[in-house]
Design brief:
single chain; about 375 residues; mainly alpha; two-stranded antiparallel ribbon; 4 strands; membrane; Site-2 protease family protein; transmembrane
């Protein structure tokens, strides 16, 4: 086996291990290598039962991720584009909760020739991954354990019976998963309502948690901005000039939504000058790549900052999802908002335009405006 292939296999096996450990942590609601007093305890190895519970999450989540990446890979190979096998990125610290990975990616090592190739390579991954996520979620929602399952993880909930949710989520420190349209449809029309878990507890259900993360990453990739999969798809549909006019507008709307509620208005600005100034600096950093002139970037910063303050002033309860601000920074400074041109700018055929609309439907089904809610 060639050394490069060995690297890909090694990264996959390490990521399989780290996601199994992370899956066991989420399933049982505890860190295995941290003692009760918060100190490190490297003797806290998993039992076989805990291992298989974590492996159920790992195999499910990495299965969707792998199919997604190989959708890109095989489509690129079909067009004879030089491409690498997927690089998996393991990430597990053992001292804090994680999902065991930062995902996976392939590297395209030569220029793509046409809009059609960009479109096909871009759309193949999300559609392939979504096709695997659907039966995973179907299995998860049709094989839910009885409600008492949660008492094995949180014995203190048993005193409240099946109405525990009315009593245990009033304190801070809880994390809930947001909703998306596909999850809502499964909950309404597929699952047994008597066994449905609370969204604060879905992380303890390996197949549902893996399915939710699969939908989250699918939606993330389908954002129609820059060189994300959704950007490749929209570029294929619109072409170089129209896409690169629209992508900055979509990115600005994304940042506008993400920053709603981030600016404190309940006290004098002088009390939070550092917060206001830091956020203004953030906006300048993410909007600077949109224009060659700094003055135009500054005008956009002022416009977005002012509009967000006005919205918060007239609608005090309005709130975006501030967690998207981190991804906005990655998009602006690492991945890019614009799409490079290709030699062949011929429009797509009708069947690919239909596939583009299907990708939009998949995005709507998978996207959660607030995917992870921390209290």
């Amino acid at each position: 086996m060639r050394p490069k292939i060995l690297l890909h296999v090694f990264l996959f096996l390490v990521t399989l291990t780290t996601t199994t450990l992370a899956g066991a942590e989420w399933r049982y609601g505890k860190l295995f290598f941290v003692g009760p007093d918060g100190s490190l305890d490297w003797g806290g190895f998993l039992t076989w039962q805990e291992f298989f519970a974590g492996f159920a999450f790992s195999l499910s989540f990495l299965g969707v991720l792998t199919v997604h990446e190989f959708g890109h890979y095989f489509t690129a190979r079909y067009y004879k584009i030089k491409v690498t096998l997927p690089y998996y990125i393991p990430l597990w610290l053992g001292i804090t909760s994680s999902i065991g990975t930062l995902g996976a990616f392939i590297r395209i090592k030569e220029r793509i020739f046409s809009r059609k190739e960009f479109f096909d390579v871009g759309i193949a991954g999300p559609l392939a991954g979504f096709a695997v996520a659907l039966p995973l979620l179907w299995y998860g929602f049709t094989h839910l354990p009885p409600p008492e399952y949660i008492f094995d993880i949180h014995p203190a909930y048993a005193q409240f019976g099946n109405q525990y949710e009315d009593f245990v989520y009033s304190q801070q420190g809880n994390m809930a998963l947001g909703n998306n349209l596909l999850f809502y449809l499964f909950e309404q029309f597929v699952a047994d309502p008597e066994r449905l878990p609370n969204h604060y507890e879905i992380s303890h259900y390996p197949y549902l948690f893996a399915g939710f993360l699969a939908l989250f990453f699918t939606a993330l990739n389908l954002l129609p901005i820059g060189q994300l999969d959704g950007g490749h798809i929209l570029y294929g549909l619109l072409g170089y000039e129209r896409f690169n006019r629209l992508s900055p507008i979509l990115f600005t709307a994304f940042i506008f939504y993400a920053g709603l509620g981030f600016i404190p208005l309940d006290t004098s600005p002088t009390d939070y000058w550092w917060w206001w100034g830091g956020y203004a600096l953030y906006l300048m950093i993410v909007f600077r790549p949109l224009f060659p002139e700094a003055a135009r970037s500054l005008m956009l910063v002022v416009a977005v900052f002012s509009a967000q303050i006005c919205c918060q002033y007239f609608w005090p309860g309005i709130k975006g999802y501030n967690g998207w601000l981190v991804f906005g920074l990655i998009l602006a400074r690492m991945m890019g908002i614009f799409h490079p041109p290709c030699p062949d700018e011929r429009p797509l055929d009708q069947k690919r335009k239909v596939l583009g609309w299907i990708a939009l439907v998949v995005f709507i089904l998978c996207f959660s405006p607030a995917p992870f809610i921390f209290e």
